[in-house]
Amino acid sequence: MAKVSIGMLGWRFDEDDILDENGEFLPLDEMPEDARERMIRLDTIYNAPCNACWLIHGDENVDECNTARYVYGEPLSEVILCEEHEPDFVYWFREDGGSAYRGTEEFEDQFYEWFLKGNRAPEGYEGMEYVSTDPDDLPEPPEPDPDEHGDLMGGDVSDRVGLTDEEIAESGVDFGSEYPSDE
Ligand SMILES: [Zn+2]
Asked: How close is the Cα of 19 to the center of ligand 1, in Å?
């Protein structure tokens, strides 16, 4: 079965789970549950700011954040990332303990904490390789009905980030500057 990405790279769907024979989206209710949940989340996180950028810039400078192009993890504890920060996430996941949190609710918080401590991928580290796929060319996700699927929709990153203001303050990231300090 062919795998496809919708809207963002990272999450992949079995074509037969989400598309009819004409290549049109199936009604959400006809998709298997896990595909439906991810599809509904995609509507919310599509074109949202990168989580890592947001940790650097915060709500007050949200314009400085790059648009997320990659999504990893489970719906509602997913991490969304721009081109620049995707390698940091992949490094955390593969090389620095992140995979231990696969499928858990702590997944996103653990990445945020790692990132806020100033951890980054080494210079030149490559993220996942997506052969000749430009995220801008992916089809847009369908629009779910908020009355039916509201529990999976909404949820601004600032609500979901899971860290208290104190924890963010203690991390030493200066949300007022253009870049976090090296310490
Ligand atoms: Zn970013």
From this structure: 30
